Amino acid sequence: MEIRMSSPELTDADREAVNRVMQTPNLSMGPEIEAFERAFCALTGANHAIGVNSGTAGLHLCVRAAGVDVSDLVITTPFSFVASTNVILFEKAVPIFVDVDPLTGNIDPDLLRKAVEDLSLGGEAAQKWLPRRLPAVNEGGLRAVKAVLPVDVFGQPADYDPINAIARQYDLAVIEDSCEALGGEYKGRAAGTLGDYGVFAFYPNKQITTGEGGMIITDDQDAADLMRALRNQGRAPGDTWLEHTYLGYNYRLDEMSAALGLSQMDRLETLLQHRAKVADWYAELLAGIEEVTPPQIVPNTTRVSWFVYVIRLSASVNRDRVALILEEKGVPVRPYFSPIHLQPYMRDMFGYQPGDFPVTEDLGNRSLALPFSGTMTKETVASVCQRIAEAVASAGKTA
Ligand SMILES: Cc1ncc(COP(=O)(O)O)c(C=O)c1O
Fold this sequence. Notes:
By secondary structure, this protein is of the alpha/beta class. Helices cover 40% and strands 13% of the residues.
């Protein structure tokens, strides 16, 4: 039995939906993307949805729509997938990291407030939030905080009430990276709608897939118009094919992908329920292993959208050895996340060092993402859990 890190849950209806597009001449910018976008407005209540060809592209367009410019500051966290930071760097703005809540891995709103307050004061107060060094392009001087980019880590929304309160007070845009949280809820409100802009992603390990793809949602008409133009090579409404009002990108989602996504959206509830069942099995079958802490869901999360199943090992357990043993036993696992500030290019650009964000690093050092998808059977989950118990017992302690 091959155990995979993740598997998309595909049906004949999905395959037929893609095939139907293949019988038409409309392979891009046709009816499928429009219907796919409408499905997101219907699901979330957002006024506008803009389909794009990746979650990264979606986040990048939100950064552009928020008016983030060279040397502006954008506050985000280093406990994420690199794209949430990279989209800030694409605009030569400066990501300012704050550490995360140890339970959820989401941005710590108290630290966020402190950072925004200190950065608005400037001088020494601001200095402690800045990286050790800056890329040459930013050396002329940093500007003010322009936006906050919280990440809904592993399908659990961040704590948006305090985040939005700070953002309103200081006139900051809130870009919700909901790439991992389609279908999640915070205090009964849909993930993706919790800031000014929300972005979902549809890589094959996600709750729904389009192969590659993403979706932006927002209530802001002007921003939506701009992002539609930017995804389509900067063509504003009224521009001809060879007129480009803005510097834009090709971030369009093709019709085959949109058709697959739309077909998956029809089954979203079922897909989410399958994933929740697998998460329940993991919780039940890991319960006896003392060194393993399951994912922590906080009361504000009225619905978690299970994207991955990430356990934490006790600090005394040699996590890397456990990972190695599991791989040898045919169980793929990933240390997840690997902190962004310690990626080689981030150390190079900003001089980050181990110890800079201790909660992120601790989570990064102790976490393991287990094989996870809605297609897993209880038997497979049981066999993974059995091997985890064996691996933990034989891995030995950290030095
Ligand atoms: C938190 C987060 N942000 C952004 C992305 C980027 O999405 P994509 O891979 O579709 O560009 C991902 C995808 O894995 C993600 O997990």
